[in-house]
Amino acid sequence: MRYIGNIFRPPSEANSLLIQATIGCSHNRCSFCAMYRDKEFRVRRLEHVFKDIKTAREYYGPDVKRVFLCDGDAMVLSAEHLLEILKALEHNFPELQRVGTYANARDILKKTDTELKELVRHRLSLFYIGLESGSDKILKWVDKGATAAEMIAAVNKAMAAGMKSSVIYLLGIGGRKFWRENAIESARAVSGMNPNYLSALTVTVIPGTPLANEMDEGSFELPSPEEFALELKVFLEHLHVKATVFRSNHASNYVPLAGRLPKDKERLIAEIDDAIKNHRFKPEFLRGL
């Protein structure tokens, strides 16, 4: 296997075979993100991807069940290009159950319903999308590259084609000034998506990013642990989904939570209230990206 630069994948893909279909992120301008700033975006040549798949088959055998396509947004590839990769994976791994990828909203919206259904038929069945915030003001400020409406439409379109969705909400990205707007507008957006999976991560200011520069200049102020927890509480109070697996147990979170919504909503809010009341937050030395 030949990986170029640092490789990232969601925690739920820990046991997946990682295949690098693209290098870097086609957008790569989000002010809070440093994941792909060491790479210039480009599409890997198919013969290189095929060679990695063949090497993985030789090393792991035919029983690979899950694959994750790296880097930042393999969905930027044309449907034809993706199908070539998916067919090679199916050929080499007959036990393959699912393929996952990060996705940008506009890349999903560019594909037709027929194309998306064909990708699902060849096991591209899970996508991860960073909503970050449901506030267009905040999304524009962090240079997300999509509006909340576009992200809602993209999630609904891909799910209608048969894909499962995993949506990321970023606590604190509105700073202390816009925490409540971030909570309420993000809850509105997620409610419009009704995703299969929902993760709440906590913004981490990484040195060298535009967000770090804004914090140094005083235009962005990081919330306290109590304020992060209060934002999550308000978010959950305004969230209305039908059947969503919820997690806020990422290494970045001060209050680790897990449950199913809406069934566990009251319990989750009670756990947040208890954490605030008793100042029960994960210590800084245990937090990470």
UniProtKB/TrEMBL annotation:
Organism: candidate division WOR-3 bacterium JGI_Cruoil_03_51_56
Signal peptide from the UniProt entry: none
Domain Radical SAM core: 9-242
Named cofactor requirement(s): [4Fe-4S] cluster
UniProtKB keywords: Iron, Iron-sulfur, Metal-binding, S-adenosyl-L-methionine
UniProt-listed SUPFAM superfamilies: Radical SAM enzymes
Gene Ontology molecular functions: catalytic activity; iron-sulfur cluster binding; metal ion binding
Protein name: Radical SAM core domain-containing protein
